[in-house]
Every structure is written in C-alpha cells, then in structure tokens.
Amino acid sequence: MSLDSNDFWAEINLDYEVNSKKTIITDSLTLNSHQYKSYGVKSGIGEKEKLFVEIGYNHIINDSVVNNSIQKVNTSNNFSINSQLINNSNSKLSIFGNYRILDRTNNERKEKFLNSRIDYFKKTSDDVIKINILYESNSGNLAQQEYTFIEVEPGIGNYKWIDINENNIQELEEFEIAQFEDEGIYLRVLLPNQRFIKTYQNKFSQSLNINFKSWSKDESKFKKLLSHFQNQTQYLIQKQSAQGNNKFDLNPFKVSSENLLGLTMNLRNSLFFNRGKEYYSTTYNFTNNRSKNSLSFGNIQNDILSHQLTFKHKLNSILFSSLISIENRKSRSENFESKNYTFEEIKYAPKFTYFIENNNKIDFYYQYSNKENLIGDFETLTQNKFGISSSFSNKNKLAINGELNYYKNKFKGNPNSIIGYIMMEGLQSGDNLTWALNIQKKITKYVDLNLNYFARKSDYNPVIHNGSVQLKANF
C-alpha cells in the first residue's frame, strides 16, 4: 500500500511466505523448509528523479527447521536512508545507508551490520576541473583461505617451482609466478574452507582531473601556456578490519590498527605536457601502492613507490622516446623469509621508431637498469638490454610482428634463489637471447589464424622453443 503526492510519499510493505516440505517415508520436514515474515514502512520527500530524501524501517522474522518443526531462528530490525541531495549538470551528491540489528534465538548477543555509500561529483562550468569522490562501507566475512599447487601441462599453469633448499620437497614458499610460458607447469588451487572472520570493510576513492585544453584559444598567454598541461590524480584505499564487539571501523585511512586484515591502497598522479601529440610530449608519473593479504599461513605485504618520466618527439618519419624511472619495491611475508626483499631500481630506456608506410614500423631500443636488494643477501643486478622489433601489415589482412633481444646480466647473489629469479625476471646471469614472432592472418570473413613463436637462450643452457597455433572462427 502506498500514498503519494507531488513531493511526499509513504509505503507500507507486508510479506509472508511459508515453504513446508515433508519426506513421505519418515514423515519429517526437509531441511529447506522455512517460513518468512516481513513488514515495514518507507517514507520520502522530494522528486525521485531529481532531489529527494527517503527513510525506511523493516522488521523480518525467519523461521527454519529445528527438531523436525518450523521454529523462529532469528529476527532483524533494518533502518535505511536513501537520498539525492544535489543533482545538476555540474554537481551530484547521493547518500545511502542501511543499519541492521540481527537477533539469533540461539545467541544472547545481537549482531550489528552497517552498509553505506556516499557518491559526490563536481566540475567547473568550463570542464577544467572534475572531481569524483566515493565512500563505501559494508559488513562481511573474510575467508582464511588455504591453497595448494598441482602440476599440469606446460603453458597451462602460471607458477614455477624453485627448490630453494634442495630437499626435493615442494613447499608453499617455493612457488613463484612463472616469467615464461613453458615454466608455468603448476596451478594454484584453493582448498575448501570453513574458517571465516567477521569483518568490516570500507572503501574510499577519489579522482581529480585538471585539464586546461579549453584555454588553448584564450587571449592570455599564460592560459595558452597552461593549455598544454593536464594533471590526473587517482587515489583508492580499500581495507578489511576484524569487527570486534560490533564496533565499526568507519575511518578508511586508519591502517595501523592491529585488527587490519586486508588492505589495497593505490595512489597515482600523472602530469602531462602535450598529451596525445607527437612533439615534445612529456609525462611524469608518481605511483605509491600498498597491499596486505591475510592467508591461513600468515599475511603478505607489498609496497611500490616509483617515479617515472617519459618523453616523445617525432621528427619526419622517426619517433624518439625515452623512459627514466626510479622504483622502490618491498615484499614482506610473515612466515616465508625467502620471499622478503626490498628492491631499489634505476632504469633508463631510449627508443627510436622508424615509420615506413601504412603504419609499418621498426623499433631500435636500449635499456639500462641497476637493481639492488637492500635486505637479506644484498643481491645486485646490472642489466644492459639491446633490442629490435618490427611490425608489418598489408591490405591482405596479414600482420607480422617480431622482436629480438639481447640481455647482458651482471648478477651478484644466488641465481637459483627466488630473489634471483624475480630480479632477473627468469633469465640467467651472463648473456641471454630472446626472440619472438607473431603472425595473424584473416583467412575468411569469419576465420582467423594466429601463429605464435617464442624462444630464449642463456649461457650453458640449450635453446628453449615455445610455439602455438590458434584457428578462431567468429559466428
């Protein structure tokens, strides 16, 4: 039943359901028999398509099978609010909240749940500044997940086993993500789990875009200069905390709590000059990422802090680009010491691209990187990489891509350790060669043929070849 006017409405809701099933032989109720009762009221003011505020209350009674009879198992009181407070072409603000109190008949303690969402958007009339803010919170459960690794055919899996203690026994800490397809002969499989931790989760995200492009035709020289710049900032923090004594951790920025079980934090700021253009295009990226995951054997934390500067400039048929980056990468495992590291890396990578015609091109590139592990055995890697790649296509719907790379690795440390494998990205100390070829051919309107080939060669190791053929039909 509902009552409406131009700017006010009210509703009364009543729901009732009985589902009773019996087994004829034993004359007993089946476990999926249940009974459900719900009644509530909802009222609001405003226009639902524009601006409004709505509040509601709902009482629910759940009955289930207990001792071969349908009995009350829990009741709950639910309070809610839903609103659209700002809604125009330049600004929007909406707020939603739901608070639930659950009373189980076999538990003296009441359980409380809170779900909420705040969404805000704002932009200037000239579209120079745009900002979007989102906050969410909800109650849930976190599985204390366990997993194991199973061996599969090469290329099907995505993990490699590194017997770091040479005891020929596969242990959880000895598996690492494979760098090459032929090494991926293990799959990580989640095991059945019945252990859950009651959690409270919240999420905050913000994006800020400042783009002065609309000022390119302004008479002010200063504004014309600014029209070459654009800045984008994106921030996300999402965490899971153990919910003790029905207390809600509403602050998403509080990450030092002992109750913290899971965390994802990403901050990225990009400053552009002449974005999307082929002359003096420059980008500076700042990245700061943090994560924490709780598993059955302990928690794992990862941090990344990086500064990256890229530059592009095209002169006639030649495009020059370069990359300079400084990165700090940390990994901490509560119980697996072999997976702990702190990498400091400096990288410089210039590249020349020569365009022929019809977007066909040849790339010549070089990369220098120096990487150090600041803890443990203090491994170091100096790498020089030289490479050439090409991309060709024609009107016959044939595309060919190929590349050849030479790596000179000067590594100090144990190359057969997990740290050595990660630092050298699956390659070996000394001289390394990799080459690849990809051919794509459109045979008919509905049939595509893909040929892929990849190979690598290291000192004292034979050539390893990998190839695949794919025939795809589109209907």
Question: Which outline best applies?
Answer: globular
Over all CA atoms, what is the radius of gyration? 30 Å
Determine the N-to-C terminus distance. Answer: 50 Å
Low-pLDDT segments, ≥5 res: none
Instruction: Count helical runs.
Output: 2
Taking all residues together, what is the mean pLDDT? Answer: 88
Structural class: mainly beta
Tell me the β content: over 45%
CATH superfamily of the domain at 316-411 and 427-475: monomeric porin ompg
CATH class of the domain at 316-411 and 427-475: Mainly Beta
Helix content: under 10%
Order of helices and strands: EEEEEEEEEEEEEEEHEEEEEEEEEHEEE
**CATH architectural category of the domain at 316-411 and 427-475:** Beta Barrel
CATH-defined topology of the domain at 316-411 and 427-475: Porin
The total of beta strands comes to 27
Could you outline the blueprint of secondary structure elements for this entry?
Elements: E1 2-4, E2 8-19, E3 22-23, E4 28-29, E5 34-46, E6 52-66, E7 69-87, E8 91-104, E9 111-123, E10 129-143, E11 147-151, E12 159-161, E13 175-177, E14 186-190, E15 196-211, H1 221-226, E16 229-242, E17 260-273, E18 281-295, E19 298-315, E20 318-333, E21 341-355, E22 361-373, E23 380-393, E24 398-412, H2 418-423, E25 430-442, E26 447-458, E27 464-473
Antiparallel strand pairs: 1-2, 2-5, 3-4, 5-6, 6-7, 7-8, 8-9, 9-10, 10-15, 11-14, 12-13, 15-16, 16-17, 17-18, 18-19, 19-20, 20-21, 21-22, 22-23, 23-24, 24-25, 25-26, 26-27
